[in-house]
């Protein structure tokens, strides 16, 4: 399909990840034409599902929690019987023991030494009696929810390992709504009545597509009101100071635009503007930091690796932060007698010269030492690189974003959506809700 040069009647969407596809989908529901420009050879962004031989795995430990009824119903409508209800809890691997994640007080007490356990209970009872100010850092969020001892044992080291920053320099929002499990009621219920939290999310109940998370987005691109151009990198956004008037694709095609939706990382968006923005804005944009991930995939000659959706590794001596097993989300993602695991290794994009084979060898060696697998069980391996996996939400980012958003607000036809465009932590249901709202807003105008 060739790029059409007259496109003023369409919404032009930069990026074919979850936010871009969801925006295009909701536009099609209102019979609004849209065209997506995606730099890679497939849509889905960091939510793609990869098929390698007889194995399916996602570029991330994705799952869908029922947190917004309208969004859940929309995804059920899109996938039908391909959407599975799954119960698969997650664990924390700590000194060769497994603890529930999110943390449960009874599980913690039966795993740790008695003096540490009693200190944790004491701190959490005290927390219930205190009145806290609104937290300014992730460290404060952790202390308020779990107390210092438990936070330092599991949350702080894992967070700093994942984000590459000290916990007292990160915003509370990186918690992603996960630190809500310990309170006076839940502690009493677990200690004295052996009752677990009533939250389905905390118990590991979620929705998952039969053949991988990426099929959500693949199933949303079948409308005649949608066009998709793959291998189409945005290289320039031409503006007149008030509107984006044209976009340049692959340094060659120039296309007139009216409404434009960007899911691009905000630092790249600023960089692509032409005429070029002033040096101060470029410096601010370039100072925004992203955390990269190496996804190390191991196909194994065994039916299962574990019975958990994900296993978290807070120990900083271990290079990977999390291992997830697609087969525990859907049995259809691997043959009956084999399985696949994905180990996530965070890194700084500016220090991306990691030797993939050495990294794979190190991971296999660690898992063998922990008696979690045998080297002889590893069939094949593969490494995938996600340089823009997470925006790093440090304490300086709010002021920087305020400056950038204020500048971008002058372009009346430019709309930002998605995790990297808005530089914030978002779940799938947030992306769908925001995409629907954006299309409602555009359609009214």
What's the Cα radius of gyration? 23 Å
Mean pLDDT: 91
State the helical fraction.
25-40%
Shape: globular
How many DSSP H or I helices?
A: 13
Describe this structure in words.
The chain is α/β, with parallel strands linked by helices and 445 residues long. It folds into three domains: 11-47 and 65-83 and 211-288 and 394-444, 3-Layer(bba) Sandwich (FAD/NAD(P)-binding domain); 102-198, no CATH class; 290-391, Alpha-Beta Complex (Polyamine Oxidase, Chain A, domain 2), CATH 3.90.660. Helix content is 33%, strand content 24%. The chain has 13 helices and 20 strands. The protein has helices spanning 18-29, 69-79, 105-111, 114-129, 138-163, 184-193, 215-218, 266-272, 279-287, 356-369, 397-408, 419-422, 428-444; strands at 11-14, 34-37, 49-52, 55-58, 83-87, 90-94, 97-101, 205-209, 226-229, 234-239, 244-249, 253-256, 259-262, 273-274, 290-300, 310-312, 322-324, 339-347, 378-391, 414-416. Strands 7-6-16-17-18-15-19 form a seven-stranded mixed β-sheet. Strand 1, helix 1 and strand 2 (34-37) form a beta-alpha-beta unit. Helix 3 packs antiparallel against helix 4. 43% of the residues are buried. Residues 1-7 have low confidence and may be disordered.
Précis, in short:
With 445 residues, the chain is α/β, with parallel strands linked by helices.
């Amino acid at each position: 399909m060739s790029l059409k040069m007259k496109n003023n009647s369409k919404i032009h969407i930069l990026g074919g990840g979850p936010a871009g596809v969801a925006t295009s989908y909701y536009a099609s529901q209102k019979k609004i034409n849209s065209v997506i420009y995606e730099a890679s050879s497939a849509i889905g962004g960091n939510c793609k599902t990869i098929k390698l031989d007889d194995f399916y795995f996602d570029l991330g430990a994705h799952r869908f929690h029922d947190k917004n009824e309208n969004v859940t119903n929309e995804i059920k409508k899109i996938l039908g019987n391909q959407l599975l209800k799954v119960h698969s809890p997650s664990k924390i691997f700590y000194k060769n023991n497994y603890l529930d994640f999110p943390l449960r007080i009874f599980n913690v007490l039966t795993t740790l030494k008695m003096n540490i356990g009693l200190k944790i209970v004491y701190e959490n009872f005290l927390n219930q009696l205190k009145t806290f100010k609104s937290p300014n850092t992730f460290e404060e969020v952790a202390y308020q929810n779990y107390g210092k001892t438990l936070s330092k044992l599991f949350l702080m080291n894992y967070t700093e390992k994942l984000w590459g920053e000290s916990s007292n320099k990160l915003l509370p929002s990186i918690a992603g709504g996960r630190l809500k499990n310990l309170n006076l009621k839940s502690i009493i219920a677990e200690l004295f009545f052996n009752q677990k939290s009533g939250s389905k999310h905390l118990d590991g109940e979620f929705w998952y597509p039969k053949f991988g998370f990426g099929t959500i987005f693949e199933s949303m691109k079948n409308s005649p009101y949608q066009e998709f151009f793959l291998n189409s990198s945005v290289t320039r956004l031409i503006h007149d100071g008030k509107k984006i008037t044209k976009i340049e694709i692959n340094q060659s095609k120039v296309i007139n635009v009216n409404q434009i939706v960007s899911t691009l990382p905000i630092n790249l968006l600023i960089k692509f503007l032409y005429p070029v923005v002033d040096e101060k804005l470029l410096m601010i944009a370039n100072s925004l930091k992203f955390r990269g991930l190496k996804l190390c995939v191991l196909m194994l000659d065994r039916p299962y690796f574990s019975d958990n959706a994900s296993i978290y590794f807070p120990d900083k001596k271990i290079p990977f932060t999390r291992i997830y097993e697609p087969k525990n989300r859907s049995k259809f993602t691997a043959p009956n007698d084999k399985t696949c695991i994905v180990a996530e290794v965070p890194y700084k994009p500016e220090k991306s010269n990691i030797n993939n084979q050495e990294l794979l060898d190190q991971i296999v060696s660690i898992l063998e030492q922990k008696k979690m697998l045998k080297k002889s069980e590893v069939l094949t391996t593969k490494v995938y690189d996600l340089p823009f996996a997470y925006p790093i939400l440090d304490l300086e980012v709010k002021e920087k974003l305020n400056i950038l958003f204020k500048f971008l607000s002058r372009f009346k036809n430019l709309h930002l959506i998605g995790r990297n465009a808005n530089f914030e932590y978002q779940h799938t249901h947030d992306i769908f809700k925001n995409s629907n709202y954006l299309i409602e807003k555009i359609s009214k105008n």
